[in-house]
Amino acid sequence: MRVGGLASGMDTESIVKDMMKIQKLPLDKLMQEKTFTGWQQEAIRETNLSMSSLRTSASSLRLQSSFNAYSAVSPNPTSFTVATTPTAMSGSYKVEVVRVASAAKLTSTNAVQNSAGTAAKSTDQIGTAGKITIASEGRNIVVDVNSTDTFADIAKNIQDQTAASIPALRASFDNTTSRFFIATKGMGSEQAFRMDFTAEDGTTANADLANKIINNGTATATADGATDGAIKFDGIEVNGLKTNQTTVNGLTINLLQAGTVETINVQSNPEKPLAMIKEFVDKYNETIDTLQKQIIEKRYPDFQPLSDEQKKELTETEIELWEEKARSGLLRNDPIMKSALQDLRRAFMDTVSGVADGNLNHLSQIGINTGSYTEGGKLFIDEEKLKDALTKKPEEVMALFTTRDAAGDGVGARVYDTLNSIVTKLSAKAGSSSSSVDNSTLSQKLKRMDTEISRWQDRLSRVEDRYWKQFTAMEKALSKMNSQSTWMQQSLFGGS
Description:
This protein is an alpha+beta fold. Helices cover about 45% and strands about 20% of the residues. The protein has helices at about 10-25, 25-60, 150-160, 205-215, 270-295, 310, 315-325, 335-350, 385-390, 395-400, 410-430, 440-495; strands spanning about 70, 80-85, 90-100, 105, 130-135, 140-145, 170-175, 180-185, 195-200, 220, 225, 230-235, 235-240, 245-250, 250-255, 260-270, 370, 380. The longest helix is centred in the C-terminal third of the chain and has 53 residues, at about 440-495.
């Protein structure tokens, strides 16, 4: 029980409150440090997000496909289409589609009849039993048919039984036409197959079952199609294609139908890689500018984070202005940030030793340079010089960026690896808000602070209780003394 200044007349609550302010000074300092550490963690995580985004953009700099500086158009797009790959070379090439690859197909010759003699539906039962043997290049797959199976059941069984074989079949029963449509999933001559229809003993021909499947009057049927694709490229025959796409001399050709000889012109087209490089440089410079400002931002040590009690004494505007100063310099001279600027500058500007002798080996040779050291390593592009290099030496520019070699990686590979290292270091220091498990350095520090704060709060609670007990004891003593004094006065002078 707490007793105020009833006997002494003192404002005990105010006295205890003032005494506790002094006791709370270490806790207030710890709370300020925790708030500041939390701000630092937020700032580092925001920087890490920027670096992660930049890393994603940098990924294209290390891929040969990003530097595909050639374009080609098919003069006969009904016969074939064409696209360039990073290994394409300028020039004119003659292309002829000799034959397209095709799947093997087997379709019911006429509409299938059900047991009532009318056009069948997928849900009707076939009404006869037997076996379907699917034969292909010495491989036989047997599908059992029960008289109670529906036409849809049979189509599904054919598809399921051949799913892991060659050929793998797609099969369906179409209600509109009352026909089975069966085709191989793959294309090419090896997809050819035949269907034999037998009785349940597997030896006797079963024309009835055949008529309920293919309706051609015989107990066997051979699929049509199953051809390999073939083209001629500058007179060179390319046969045995199992799909209708092939890549020859850096050109990806999609076969559509057989046609006449056509001439493809492959020309240098630097616009795509030029736009990709410019877009990355703009994003890189924006990120570096923000990072440089954070490293040199002034710190105001006299402006510490405000406590809840201090905020009550200030207006919202005053709080905002104060915290603006308190948050300044959160990442000033941060070692990871400073190292990041240096590492990225080296990744861009160091010579690439992994390219062939005499080839482009430095960004300055294609018009990309860094500014002064005070600008934090920003990149500046001489667009005409870069475009000229992409036009005249596209393979060398690609190698300058994408080389992966024991002697030395290309610029794009180095930049990506450097950014990946930076992101890893920042994550180890500040963690990620999206991660359920965070063992980062700052998170561990905040946990230790929470533990210390809890201990201080318990200690202060005990100190405050002790103060109140002391004052309460004093008040009781004064109250007792006052009572004795009153009794003595009444005893000595009460009768006179």
